[in-house]
Write a sequence for this structure.
């Protein structure tokens, strides 16, 4: 995707809980606050590594009820079927970072 703007999760899902969005409604999602993840998979904050962040507000309806979908136990089983994660994996190829250890260890 060289030269193209890579989508972050808030762009892909048209989320209004990112501090980077055109319109912000409700509590900010921790994905947009995780500056330590900046650049991971080519994203802004954790915008292209949301599966690594607990407490997210994923808007994909199949991700389940709000009280479950942001927890790591739920994410472990369900983020691997997410269309956004699949897109990031495809775009990043061999440079794809699955988890924090691949960048921060």
């Amino acid at each position: 995707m060289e030269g193209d703007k890579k989508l972050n999760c808030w762009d892909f899902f048209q989320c209004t809980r990112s501090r980077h969005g055109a319109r912000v409604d409700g509590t900010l999602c921790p994905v947009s606050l995780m500056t330590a993840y900046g650049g991971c998979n080519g994203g802004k904050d954790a915008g292209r590594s949301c599966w690594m962040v607990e407490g997210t507000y994923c808007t994909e309806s199949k991700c389940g009820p709000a009280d479950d979908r942001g927890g790591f136990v739920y994410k472990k089983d369900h983020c691997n079927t997410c269309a956004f994660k699949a897109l990031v994996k495809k775009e990043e190829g061999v440079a794809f970072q699955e988890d924090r250890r691949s960048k921060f260890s």
About this structure: Helices lie at 9-12, 66-69, 72-78, 83-92, 101-104. Residues 89 and 96 are 6 Å apart (CA to CA).
